[in-house]
Amino acid sequence: MMLTKKNLAIPALLLLSVLLLRPLYADEKAVVIAPPVLDNPKTAGELRKMVLAGGCFWGVQGVFQRVQGVRKVVSGYAGGNKANAHYEIVGTGTTGHAESVEITYDPAEVTYGTLLQVFFSVAHDPTQLNRQGPDRGTQYRSAIFFGDESEKKIAQAYIKQLDEAHNFPVSIVTRVDRLGAFYAAEDYHQDFLLRNPGYPYIVYNDLPKVEHLRQTFPELYSKEPTRITDVNSAPRMHGDSL
After folding, report:
1. Residue 177 — pLDDT band, cuts 50, 70, 90?
2. What fold characterizes domain 56-216?
């Protein structure tokens, strides 16, 4: 039995037997990759935002909450419209939305390209098409939602760089799409990994990603994660403040 988000309501004894019969953590490994050749330099200025999709947003949020230079990470939805930006509807895989995270970062401390390096290396597997680990559907696709032409060029160039270097056994399937809007997910999804470190899905699928971040990028790893305390559960347009 796969530890998916949908089947975690199984009885405790059955869950225990599943965990005893399977490895403690998922088999997904970090991939050591070079930083992007094309990137923006570190520059003092206003905080910037980027939107990434890499499977279940619980784990992706949990990874980026521990990256130095990141100020805020919000779980949410991108790729569809406002009316459908609700968890139960997005879960049908028919809305065009992908579970995504909006990352607010300080460009003087960390670059757009470095955040993409973390995304491809430890946050998810960019070779899995319309799925991530045990979760299936277009809502779990790998995608970079760019906000301007600079982000688009860096993302496309980096995917080409990684494919040509054969860092992964098969080609990267990550989409590079223009960001229309980002909508924050419901309150109970925010800080989910930090608030529920013992949740079986988190233990099996997501805590290994955080550990991979610590091991692979020690210079970026922050012992104190950034958190969200009060998030409006109503859908929010990209760029609106929380």
Report:
1. very high
2. Peptide Methionine Sulfoxide Reductase; Chain A (3.30.1060)
